[in-house]
Amino acid sequence: MGRRATAMETGPLEGKIALVTGGSRGIGRAIAERLAKDGATVGVAYARDEAAANDTVERIHKDGGLAFAVCAELGRHGDATRLWAAFDAGGKDHVPDGKLDIIVNNAAIGRSAALTSLTEDGFDEVFAVNVRAPFFIVQQGLSRLRDGGRIINISSGAASLAMPEIIAYGATKGALDTFTLNLAKELGPRGITVNSVAPGIVDTDTNAGWLRGNPQAEAYAASLAALGRVGQPEDVADIVAFLASNDARWVTGRVVDATGGAGL
Predict the structure, then answer these.
(1) What whole-number distance in Å separates Cα of residue 185 and Cα of residue 222?
(2) How many CB atoms neighbour CB 82 within 10 A?
(3) Average pLDDT, the chain
(4) What are the φ and ψ backbone dihedral angles of 258, each rounded to 5 degrees?
(5) Buried b (16+ CB within 10 A) or exposed e, 28-53
(6) Mean pLDDT of 236-240
(7) Roughly what angle, to the nearest 10 degrees, separates helices 26-37 and 233-244?
(8) Where are the membrane-spanning stretches (predicted)?
(9) Model pTM greater than 0.90?
(10) Is the dihedral of CA 240, 99, 57, 134 positive or negative?
(11) Domains of the chain
């Protein structure tokens, strides 16, 4: 179990409990580490890569934070039930009452297929992970989420920019933004804010195959952003940290663009 170095290092999320799906690598890892740095105890949810999840937890502990791993594969019926059971099991030493303050729906899969090549199974899978899982994670988590809590859904610039080559993925993120809008209205009376964060191209393992070590690809990706560079996971994590904090208490039902100004 990790321990905070000194009482002077408390942050804006001190005493808060967070769940980050897809928290073992990429943007999810950066979010988990940033929320822990700000004082939250973080459940790092992952599907299969136990080593990566444990590494994320250890990195947080070494930095003086608190975290625990939550193993639950998404995309199958009953996944939300299994996730919350794993949250209770993994967090028994940190979250004895099963309550939490922050849910970050970050886990997602992409399908790099155009309209003519996408299969029905591929379509069903991407919607199951990217839309159905967050829906039921929230549905089953509402009794756990404290009033004044935060729900942050990781969307994508693909929800608002035409990208036919990833048409199904973009559609799932559009659905997630609609989910955000309706949740914000429904949960407003409880003081719970709900927002989406929409990244553009980010230098993660998912994009490594075509981006890293390819100067032309990197230059092209950077040219799409008004700020002239490729996004980093920490760029997104810092926005999530703001939305999770009390500073963002008056922001809800919004999609926060995190593309660096793509398409301007």
Answers:
(1) 36
(2) 15
(3) 94
(4) -125, 40
(5) bbbbbbbbbbbbbbbbbbbbeeeebb
(6) 98
(7) 40
(8) none
(9) yes
(10) negative
(11) 12-258 (3.40.50.720)
